Amino acid sequence: NQYANQPIETRPTVIYMHGCTGIGFEDSAWMEYLHDLGYSVIAPDSYERPGGRVGCGGTIPERVTLRHEELRYSIEMIGDLPWVDTNRLYMMGFSEGGHALTTLTDVPDGVRGIVLIGVDCQASGGTPLAPSHIPVLNIVGSQDEYDFGRGCTLKRTAPGTRVMIVRGGHHVGLAVMPATRQVLAGQIIAP
Fold first, then answer.
1. pLDDT of residue 191
2. Read out DSSP for 134-165?
3. CB-based contacts of 12: which residues, under 8 Å, 6+ apart?
4. What per-residue confidence (pLDDT) applies to 150?
5. 3-state class of 43 per DSSP?
6. CA distances from 174 to 18, 37, 94, 118, 125 (A)
7. Poorest-pLDDT segment among 95-99, 120-124, 144-148
8. Which residues pair with 162 in a beta bridge?
9. Averaged over 163-173, what is the pLDDT?
10. Of 104, 115, 116, 163, whose CB has the highest number of CB atoms within 10 Å?
11. DSSP type of residue 5
12. In Å, what is the CA distance from 41 to each residue of 13, 15, 33, 83, 168?
């Protein structure tokens, strides 16, 4: 193998948590964009779990518990991947995946930022529960059908922390809006 003796370049990595309908257009668009920015993306797929999923049924706390399991497993497994820079990890979640991130308290040391999309933090009492030194970028569409244009209350002073309400944005479709991509590339997600 011609590559066997070449050093492996480590890359910043985003653990991406999809919404309750599984990996769809919105999720694929975000992952492709992150890849274009130079990130590796790990995206656990809830629908591949033994027993499958019920989609968006059940309660948020029940679904968030399942998503926390997926997130913890992903974090455990990426430590063995030689191309993942475990000191440059980011977590990003859309809709249900974002709710899972808002309620996460045991964030690994290498996590440099959290991005929440289409989430108003209702599942976590209005604000993310991650340690306050971790910056959070919360992106919500002004016409979001579920979050009604409300973002989270970000009780933290970490640089890069902000709520972005995207004028005219809906729950789905933020991934392809230029303003959203620009703020993502220039804020928390920065290799």
1. 43
2. S-EEEEEETT-TTTTT---------TT-EEEE
3. 38, 39, 40, 85, 88, 89, 90, 191
4. 79
5. coil
6. 14, 17, 10, 9, 24
7. 144-148
8. 137
9. 85
10. 116
11. T
12. 6, 6, 10, 11, 28
Average of per-residue pLDDT across 57-82: 83
Cα gap 63→70, rounded to integer Å: 11
Give the pair of three-digit tokens for residue 185.
């590339």
Give exposure, 78-100, as e/b (b: 16+ Cβ within 10 Å): beeeeebbeebbbbbbbbbbbbb
Beta bridge partners of 14: 41, 90
Please state, as a whole number, how many other Cβ atoms lie within 10 Å of the Cβ of residue 58: 14
With a CB cutoff of 8 Å and minimum separation 6, the contacts of 17 are 43, 44, 67, 70, 71, 91, 92, 93, 94, 96, 97, 98, 100, 101
**DSSP state for residue 38 in the 8-state scheme:** T
Residue type present at position 143: Q
